[in-house]
UniProtKB/TrEMBL annotation:
The protein's name in its UniProt record: Acetylornithine aminotransferase
Class of enzymatic activity (EC top level): transferase
Subcellular location: Cytoplasm
UniProt keyword terms in alphabetical order: Amino-acid biosynthesis, Aminotransferase, Arginine biosynthesis, Cytoplasm, Pyridoxal phosphate, Transferase
Family: Belongs to the class-III pyridoxal-phosphate-dependent aminotransferase family. ArgD subfamily.
Annotated metabolic or biological route of this protein: Amino-acid biosynthesis; L-arginine biosynthesis; N(2)-acetyl-L-ornithine from L-glutamate: step 4/4
Gene encoding the protein: argD
N6-(pyridoxal phosphate)lysine: residues bearing it: 243
UniProt EC number: 2.6.1.11
Pfam families: Aminotran_3 (PF00202)
Source superkingdom: Bacteria
Amino acid sequence: MIASVLPTYNRAPLTFVKGESSWLIEADGRRFLDLGAGIAVNALGHAHPKLVAALTEQAGALWHTSNLYHIPKQQELADKLVAHTFADTVFFTNSGTESCELAVKMARKHFFDAGQPERTDIIAFEGSFHGRSSAGIAAAGSEKMTKGFGPLLPGFKHLGWGDHDALDAAIDDKTAAILIEPIQGEGGIRPLPDQCLRGLRALCDEKGILLILDEVQCGVGRTGRLFAHEWAGVTPDIMMVAKGIGGGFPLGAVLATEAAASGMTAGTHGSTYGGNPLGCAVGCAVMDIVTDPDFLPEVSRKAGLMRQKLEGLVAAHPQVFEAVRGAGLMLGLKCKAPNLDVVNAGYAALIVTVPAADNVIRLLPPLTLTDDEITESITRLDRAASAIETA
């Protein structure tokens, strides 16, 4: 008999009932150090007092009206995002998947309105993850994501990661945009080098096409800048955002330049819940915290400390780990042992990590992780690695 919850997840035998900053409390009382943060969602940890206050205040005033009317918190959050990014305009969604859907529509509508309706193709890359909607799986293109779900949405080309010659050759008169994650998350914490991102921007400008960045996982302070592309000194035309922007509350957004968004006029897109008062109130609180001048330098400092300690961990356990990769507090441990064995050994050592492709475990802690918690995380990962070595 099928379970009452559709069985699409391979769940760990854990039931967390409470969160406190960087910690998760299991139903049996055990305290786990959380280096997953809900897969980069709880960017400010669990039950951050300013987020709780923002949500509680808004919940006591108004939960939902609809986008038929003006929503003050939505306007406030859009203004904050425009002020701190490349964007001229913002559309709010509930998730990264929804952001992907709009990004694809926006790029195609841009060229339709520009008198180039043949420009519908979007170039994406091996190892990518852009959500599990029809557009998202078509963009990723992997058999794991698409098998059994055909016919797939047409208009996507898939290239190997880092294949520059193939990229240049793939752009033709039907190309609308390049879609890429500055750091692949599900693909195994693979950062795109700054010079490659600058090259992509230059190529898009040369060919007259759009650059879409998926910063759903790597954005909102995760790398030590508000958004990861800032390290390369370039800007996209369209950007997908979610996860950390809501600090745990379902919230996403598409940010765009005025030119890229020019086709999206009244009636071309909508959302029942996107930009609702509750989500935007929390999003405003998140933005106020991460844009404080002292916050992101602290993220970078802690990221340096954590990476240094992880390099020592890898050196101490060469049978289990191979290398550290990533940027900021979006880090990965490339494993020699099966990565799921490492994740499960971590559970036994009371630490939460997240598996990814390429035999990697992801370390995506709250950006508010303390120095003492960094030290404790290495202790627990060391305990997990030792258990694998002696098994």
